[in-house]
Amino acid sequence: MTDYTDKTKKISPVAWVPTLYFAMGMPFVVLNMVCSLMYKGMGVSDAQIAFWTSLIMFPWTLKPLWSPFLEIYKTKKFFVVLTQLLSGLMFALVALALRLPDFFAITVGMLAVIALSGATHDIAADGVYMSTLTTDDQAKWIGWQGAFYNIAKIVATGGLVYLAGMFKDSFGVSMAWMIVMLIVAIIMVGIGIYHVFRLPSGVNSKKDEAVSISSQLNDLWNVFVEFFRKKHIIYYIFFIILYRFAEGFVMKIVPLFLKAPRAEQGLGLSEQEIGLCYGTFGAAAFVIGSILAGYYIAHRGLQKSLFSLALIFNLPFVAYTLLAIFQPENIVIIGGGIVLEYFGYGFGFVGLTLFMMQQIAPGQHQMSHYAFASGIMNLGVMLPGMISGYVSDALGYKNFFIFVLLCTIPALLITWFVPFTYPDKKQTENN
Predict the structure, then answer these.
(1) The dihedral of CA 243, 244, 245, 250: what is its sign?
(2) pLDDT confidence of 209, banded at 50, 70, 90?
(3) Proportion of the chain in helix, strand, coil states, percent, rounded to 5
């Protein structure tokens, strides 16, 4: 145990926080957003795309069920590396399956395996982060954590989508996306190999010892019960679900809206234009938003900052409503809406992440309880995502985004009144 701790202290967070959270973001974003454009280009309907690419995200909700087992077997680093390599292998298989006649059913099944691997990776990665860094360092690096998670989003929705559009002109749709999936596979395997050497162990709180199945199940039950005994936990559950509820509706629809023909209330952009907007206009805004949020919270304290973070998080939905109403053709104006989306998401999401780490997770089972909280949070994104295609088809893009604006009201109200269980260090210092 001491040996692991000594090794952990020798590895600077700058060597592993960026790559760890980039690797966390890549599978999630590819499954959640990039695959929507891939299936759209290959002729799958909006309703099917939104439903199935939302349903396969279910492991991110269920991950609390197996998170306690990761605390009693091997190290957190072991699971991080294992899942990164597994995800890379599965992305390569997805690439090969895109040329098959029943590609949609087959690749959705493979993506479900990647989702299971990715959800497990997230538990272990957050465990490394929380067990390696002090509370002060967590706040210091939270902006960089969010930044590189979202850089993965930019690389995927910007660079990879742009490449898909470029390759499509030369090789055709299926071959273009096959190349893109292979690129993702190489990235994940490369990061996994890097982390063999540069990731702290994130040792488990329990000694490596033989544990019976009954004991493991008993531990799981105790972790579950203790989570729901936390102060304000019912309020917190509604808070973390509603914070991203509106985002859950737009996450699947925005890429489809950007690509849909103007006659169908879309903006009629090509893959190259979508990738260019996300990869250039969005890139700087996203990184700046995430990093500024970390310093903003460090300066003012989380309790004093949380509502303003939620407000900025929901601003992009106003931009997309205006884009749907006026359907501008100027790529700079469209890019401006994407800039607002990425800045708002990067800035506001940091507040929710830190709240779960500092107000919900603390206790004996910190990693497991954080996994519980993030799993519930993803349920709040997944459920609206599953029906978003049907709602969009029924209302049309313009009315759909107006509907989404109404969904932001509960999030802002519950954030305004959210109680804090643990004193905000910054607030205590100011008093």
Answers:
(1) positive
(2) very low
(3) 85, 0, 15
Q: What is the pLDDT of residue 141?
A: 82
Residue for token pair 């994940």? 188
Query: What phi and psi, each to the nearest 5 degrees, are found at residue 57?
Result: -85, 0
- Going by C-alpha positions, the residue among 228, 271, 203 that lies closest to residue 33 is 271
pLDDT in tens, 69-95: 776 677 889 999 999 999 999 999 999
pLDDT digits (tens, 9 = 90+) for 105-159: 999 999 999 999 999 998 889 888 888 887 777 777 877 887 788 788 888 888 8
d(C-alpha 429, C-alpha 431), whole Å:
5
Q: What whole-number distance in Å separates Cα of residue 123 and Cα of residue 82?
A: 13
**With contact defined as beta carbons under 8 Å apart, do 270 and 165 qualify?**
yes
What's the predicted TM-score (pTM) here?
Answer: 0.75
Q: If DSSP codes are grouped into helix, strand and coil, which group holds residue 99?
A: coil
Closest CA to 185 of 117, 119, 105: 117
What is the DSSP-derived secondary structure letter of residue 417? Answer: T
Instruction: Give the closest residue to 356 by CA, choosing from 342, 376, 384.
Output: 376
Pull the structure tokens for residue 9. Answer: 């202290």
